[in-house]
Design brief:
The protein has 72 residues and is mostly helical. The chain is built from three helices and no strands. Helix 2 packs across helix 3. The model has no long low-confidence stretch (mean pLDDT 82).
Length: 72
């Protein structure tokens, strides 16, 4: 999520994954305010066993582009 205010929307993904017993984590990181954090998260995702990243933002897609650019 780009900010905590996105939680009202993104919580549905969290609830669904929990319901199905799928291990996951929920993180807030901004491609604008913390671009290195967002890039590092995506770049190291595969090494941490992450298979899918569900990213959300309100009006624009910088976090989505940052995730896409740094994944394998």
């Amino acid at each position: 999520m780009g900010s905590k205010s996105d939680w009202d929307t993104m919580r549905h993904a969290d609830e669904t994954l929990t319901e199905f017993g799928i291990a996951h984590e929920c993180r807030v990181m901004s491609a604008h305010r913390t671009p290195k954090l967002a890039a590092d998260f995506s770049a190291t995702a595969a090494d941490r066993g992450v298979e899918v990243i569900i990213a959300g933002c309100r009006r624009c897609g910088p976090i989505l582009r940052a995730s896409w650019l740094h994944t394998r």
